[in-house]
Design brief:
By secondary structure, the chain is of the alpha/beta class. Helix content is about 40%, strand content about 15%. It has a seven-stranded parallel β-sheet with strand order 3-2-1-4-5-6-7, sandwiched between helices.
Length: about 230
């Protein structure tokens, strides 16, 4: 199938912004979701084709439902959902604040679930669509200073793998993407530019994801692992 409408969460920066720009160049109607209106419209201004912007907190189920109802009415059925929104707070387990714990679980895990729920019925009714969950290698292995972040991402991994089984008799594709650290704003205030200079370029990661989720007649990709060449933040 050819994607007509793609919804991307966390589209205001980093990987989400790169994916939005690349799909827009292909003529896809890109729907940008995120918490920062300023960032979303900055990305939107650079898109060459039709697009929509919805300021959204994916951790709030009622807000997610309201936004996806609007998308269905104003744009049409969603062909591609990329659950990319995510936050991280890194420290020893005993030092991570309650606020940070709630934020990581709410956005990384609950946000992925809430957004996915909003497209499933329609995708099932049409027996087509693709759901891509941007998980991180933190969903594959535990890491020092990332206990709660890993917990949220292990949750996304479990949700993704279970969803794949639920939909195995349909034509809906579910993909889990497990990538290492990228050179994005995510690490601002956490690592220096010197520490992040060898990280992956999100532009490259976006290309890999788009190439591998293309619908193909005799195969499907359920999982991607994308790592940095150097063993750092991967």
């Amino acid at each position: 199938m050819v994607y007509r409408v793609a919804v991307i969460t966390g589209a205001g920066s980093g990987l989400g912004a790169f994916l939005a720009k690349k799909y827009s160049r292909q003529g896809v109607h890109v729907v940008l979701l995120g918490r920062s209106e300023e960032k979303l419209f900055k990305v939107a201004d650079a898109l060459p084709s039709n697009h929509s912007v919805y300021v959204t907190d994916v951790s709030c189920k009622k807000e997610v439902q309201r936004v996806f109802d609007s998308i269905r009415k104003e744009v049409g059925p969603v062909d591609l959902l990329i659950n990319n929104a995510g936050v991280g707070s890194f420290d020893l387990a005993e030092n991570i604040s309650e606020e940070s714990i709630h934020e990581m679980i709410d956005i990384n895990l609950k946000g992925t679930i809430f957004c996915t729920q909003q497209v499933l019925k329609q995708m099932k009714a049409r027996n087509q669509g693709c759901i891509v969950n941007i998980v991180s290698t933190a969903g594959k292995q535990g890491k020092v200073h990332e206990s709660v972040y890993c917990a949220s991402k292990f949750g996304v991994r479990g949700f993704t793998e279970s969803l794949t089984l639920e939909l195995q008799e349909t034509s809906i594709q579910v993909v889990g993407v497990y990538m290492g650290g990228m050179k994005t704003e995510f690490w601002n205030g956490i690592f220096t530019s010197e520490q992040t200079k060898n990280l992956m370029n999100p532009d490259d990661v976006a290309d890999i994801i788009m190439e591998n989720i293309q619908p193909r007649k005799y195969l499907t990709v359920e999982e991607m692992i994308i790592k940095n060449k150097k063993n750092f933040l991967c």
